[in-house]
């Protein structure tokens, strides 16, 4: 029995909406019943992005951020707001938060208020989460969306 999925179209991959396909609510992997036309938009018969397409999209994202050359990497217990702002004062053009636990972040107000702080000068900002449940990760990402430019997933 075939399942119905929303086809991934080229509209999702334009420069303004290319992050939309990251949401589990509106993205589905290509199926065998998916039309060849939909798969063609991604550049490969199986519907997945080619290595070259992924590289091109990465450059587009980098340019949208203002082409930063100095980025402060995520460091557990060391990349909180005061440290990020100090790094920015000395030339960092973008920064990561420390790794945050998505489940604790979504469930605990105290954790959110203590572990995630930012300000308008703290941009571009990447918020890093670890997770083992995609729905919880999505909820955490949606909570920080107004305060950051990207969400980074720590996979281990």
Automatic annotation (TrEMBL):
Signal peptide bounds: none
Molecular function per GO: tRNA dihydrouridine synthase activity
Record's keyword annotation contains NADP: yes
Segments for region (Disordered): 1-43
Swiss-Prot/TrEMBL keywords: NAD, NADP
Keyword Lipid biosynthesis: no
Domain DUS-like FMN-binding residues, every copy: 72-156
Pfam families attached to this UniProt entry: Dus
Stored PANTHER family: TRNA-DIHYDROURIDINE SYNTHASE, TRNA-DIHYDROURIDINE(16_17) SYNTHASE [NAD(P)(+)]-LIKE
Protein name per UniProt: tRNA-dihydrouridine(16 17) synthase [NAD(P)(+)]-like
Source organism (scientific name): Olea europaea subsp. europaea
């Amino acid at each position: 029995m075939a399942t119905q999925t929303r086809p991934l179209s080229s509209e999702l991959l334009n420069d303004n909406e290319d992050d939309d396909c990251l949401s589990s609510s509106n993205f589905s992997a290509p199926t065998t019943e998916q039309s060849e036309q939909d798969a063609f938009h991604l550049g490969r018969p199986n519907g997945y992005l080619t290595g070259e397409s992924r590289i091109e999209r990465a450059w587009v994202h980098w340019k949208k951020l203002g082409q930063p050359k100095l980025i402060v990497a995520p460091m557990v217990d060391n990349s909180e707001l005061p440290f990020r702002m100090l790094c920015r004062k000395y030339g960092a053009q973008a920064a990561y938060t420390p790794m945050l636990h998505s489940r604790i972040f979504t469930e605990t107000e105290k954790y959110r208020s203590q572990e995630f702080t930012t300000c308008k000068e703290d941009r571009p900002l990447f918020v890093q989460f670890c997770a083992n449940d995609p729905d919880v990760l999505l909820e955490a990402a949606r909570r920080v969306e107004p305060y950051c430019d990207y969400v980074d997933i720590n996979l281990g």
